[in-house]
Amino acid sequence: MTMRCRLPHGFVLIELVTTLILIGVIGAFAGLFLYNGINGYLASKRNSESALKVQVALDRISAELRNVKAEPKPVFAAKQITYQNDIAAGNRVLQIEDGPQGPGIYLTAGGSKNLLIDGVDVAQSNVTFDATRNLDNENNNNEISSIRVAFRLTEIGTPFRVEVYPRALITYP
Asked: If you count DSSP H runs as helices and E runs as strands, how many of each does the chain have, helices first?
């Protein structure tokens, strides 16, 4: 009498199910890890692009307002300033509005309206100035010591502000 030994000829169903469950759990953790990494990268990229866009706009606004001429006097409104500067002839208007290309800060020069930065929360942004007495030691006029432009981007929500000290002594309008 010979004894026959039965050797397994393949996987049992329970082994296959267990393997699939383990691969699924490992895949879920790997997917979660990749998802968080990609979201972090995209948020960092978006913030970096916004910061660069804001920096370019702030630099341009500073260059424009630093060279404001004293005559004719600049005209200030809540969300705009009309002025002339040493860079180019003619009236220039820096305004925060919901313009043709969406809400943003626009510079109008020579009849052409150019967008400096888009995505600005128009309700939370303004152009203001500070007046200080007797910067040039004269007794009869107040001068503007600084011009402030403050705005908030809707996508970030962080307020940005630039304070510019004009080179010319501009009397209070």
From this structure: 1, 9
Beta-sheet strands, E only, within the chain: 75-77, 80-83, 92-99, 102-109, 112-118, 126-133, 142-152, 159-164, 170-171
Say how far apart CA 32 and CA 16 lie, in whole Å: 24
Q: What is the pLDDT of residues 87-139, one digit of tens each?
A: 777 889 988 888 888 888 899 888 888 898 888 888 877 777 665 555 555 65
Domain boundaries, the chain: 36-171
DSSP tag of 88: S
CA-angle at 131, arms to 127 and 132, nearest 5°: 150
Among 153, 148, 166, 128, CA closest to 52: 153
- Separation of alpha carbons 48 and 41, rounded Å: 10
Length of the chain: 173
Beta-carbon contacts of 64 under 8 Å, excluding residues fewer than 6 positions away, are 85, 87, 92, 94, 107
What letter does residue 173 receive in the DSSP assignment? -
- Interatomic CA distance for residues 168 and 66, integer angstroms: 8
